[in-house]
Amino acid sequence: MATATTTPPPPTPGKKPQPIPWTHQETVHLIQAYEEKWYSLKRGPLKSSQWEEVAVTVAARCGYDYTEPSKTAIQCRHKMEKLRQRYRSEKNRVNLVGLSVWPYFDLMDRLERGPLPISAQPMIAIPYRRDRDLDDEDEDDDDDDDEESVIRTKSRSIDYILKRPAIVNRAFSERIVGMESMKMEMMKDTERCRREMETKRIEMIHRSHNKILDSITKAFRF
């Protein structure tokens, strides 16, 4: 009699690994990298190779190396699509409420609006200047002196800017040292007061004991 052979059940396929969520830093760099690439293409659609460039730019600006997981070109494209959908809904909300708490609204709004056209940029008034006599050597010398003065002033300003971190750090260190010195003095004063109080307490105990002994001695004398 032949025994029926049972076939083992097929192995269950493993679960698909969940994608790593986007961090705030990655999202900001994605919007900025896409904006640069999109504007370079006159706001035209990106090709696969250009999405690869965006993904590489995001990873580089986040400081990732080849051993760390970074977002792929497809993930970047899908993320931008979701950001655009969220921006449209937030834009409608802003039109109704006047406010958006979405952290990427300003970046996406700048992306969609684009830079201000030349006609919309504020105009700079040019001050009126009278014609000068080009042959006036004294005035030219004064101008040279003014330019040298401006250069010296700028040089001093640059030196101050370069030296400012060291000055701030030194002032901060002196402040910390002063605070630590005050703290040590307060601790010393506290310890001195504690010792004085302890000495007084012991003296009071001794006086109390002596009074008690004197009272007992006087009582037995009678």
UniProtKB/TrEMBL annotation:
It holds the Pfam family Myb_DNA-bind_4. SMART domains: MADF (SM00595). Residues 21-84 form the Myb-like domain. InterPro entries: ASIL1/2-like, Myb_DNA-bind_4, SANT/Myb. Coiled coil: none annotated. Residues 7-20 have a biased composition (Pro residues). Residues 134-148 have a biased composition (Acidic residues). Residues 1-21, 129-151 are annotated as: Disordered. This is Myb-like domain-containing protein. It comes from Cannabis sativa (Hemp).
